[in-house]
Design a protein that fits this description.
Layout (H helix, E strand, L loop, with lengths): L1 H11 L5 E9 L2 E8 L5 H10 L3 E4 L2 H4 L3 H7 L3 E6 L4 H9 L7 E5 L6 E5 L2 H11 L31
Antiparallel strand pairs: 1-2, 2-6, 3-4, 4-5, 5-6
Length: 163
Amino acid sequence: MSSELERRATELRFLDGIEKVEHVRFSTGDQFWVRFNRPIDTNKLHDVVRKHGYELVPFGGLPSKLPKRLSEVLWDGVTHIVVKDITGFGRFTSSLGLEPDGIAKIALDLHSPCQIFIAMNENGVEILYDYLGLKYVPPLPIKPLNQIQAPTQSPPGATNRSG
């Protein structure tokens, strides 16, 4: 997935409205971060997300309302999460800052007015491309390495006459 994200980063880097594109590696998996230099159209994103069978859920409303210094300690700037299925209780805990399992996030850069779209897998990247109006091309399947065949043993009594 790493080379695929690098290719996508190069593809998006110079589009109008995008400030920065990064492939971020975490121990839990790779993420694809796109920082916009203008606000994300949440109505348009909501429609795109719904078209793909997901939901755009508000996140971290309570921690974000704390005083700035305290909110920066407790809240990472995530304002929305794209999830497949979520219950009413899941929505409630999401507003408290307990993150549901999702495919993408929208975050505020806490030190600038920029918003960041964070895709956590290829489904999130596909939604990003659809939001940007770009043609999404799925990654090529990874071909398994041909396994090296173990040398076959000679039948008992056979001799190796190479030399």
